[in-house]
Write a structure and sequence with these properties.
Radius of gyration: 38 Å
Number of strands: 0
Shape: elongated
Order of helices and strands: HHHHHHHH
Structural class: mainly alpha
Largest sheet: none
Distance between the termini: 75 Å
Number of helices: 8
Oligomer: single chain
Helix content: over 70%
Length: about 230
């Protein structure tokens, strides 16, 4: 439901610019009419041709675009299918324009012309292409933005996991075991050095907290000095 106002805004803006274009295109034919009458006629024409555009746009954006992105192995088939849908929509567009919109809107002021008119088909193609291309571009930008946000979340989760792992590694028990392993390895490899007794080191430094950690650190320090 949150997207409904955005969709309404999109079609409102498109209808406004399409009406403005139709108003300017008919300036010569409808020059004898007032500006308000010309705006009303332009608006009627654009609203009448809006339905096939809406169907085409939502079909391309929410059906074909998803298939083209996800079904890479059927890319050629999906593109051909998209072109076919576009052609069918263009034919329906011309039917509405020639047999319904023009006769009932212009009322003989502007003749609809022949159905198979190259220039009219070109203008219809541009009209459908503009609105569908704009909608697809907006959808692609939105998908890219969502993908980047997901990537940021994944990176954030990965960093948090690594930080948690590092914090666990700095745990006193982990540090004690690591230093104890170093001490054991040093004793095993040393042939000339004997470490002081544990009780002597504890009495000397009078450790109260983390005594084992400081004990191992002291042993390692003495061993380094003796090398």
């Amino acid at each position: 439901m949150k997207r409904v106002p955005l969709h309404i805004l999109f079609w409102t803006l498109y209808l406004a610019q399409d009406t403005a274009f139709a108003y300017l295109a008919d300036a010569g034919v409808l020059s004898h009419l007032t500006s308000l009458a010309r705006i009303v006629i332009a608006l009627k024409v654009c609203v009448g041709l809006l339905l096939p555009k809406i169907i085409l746009v939502y079909f391309l954006v929410y059906v074909m675009l998803e298939k083209i992105i996800k079904q890479r192995e059927k890319l050629t088939l999906n593109i051909l299918y998209t072109v076919l849908v576009f052609i069918v929509t263009l034919l329906i567009y011309r039917i509405l324009e020639v047999y319904i919109i023009y006769p009932f809107t212009y009322e003989g002021i502007r003749p609809p012309g022949k159905y198979f008119n190259a220039v009219s088909f070109l203008f219809g193609l541009m009209d459908l292409g503009f609105v569908s291309g704009t909608a697809i571009a907006i959808k692609v930008i939105k998908l890219q933005f969502i993908a980047k946000e997901k990537e940021k979340l994944l990176i954030k989760d990965k960093l948090e996991t690594e930080l948690k792992f590092l914090k666990n590694q700095t745990n006193p028990h982990f540090l004690f075991n690591t230093l104890n392993n170093i001490y054991a390895e040093s004793v095993y490899k040393s042939e000339y050095f004997q470490f002081p007794d544990d009780n002597q080191i504890i009495n000397q430094y009078n450790l109260k907290s983390f005594s084992k950690i400081f004990l191992i650190l002291n042993r390692f320090h003495i061993f380094l000095l003796s090398l």
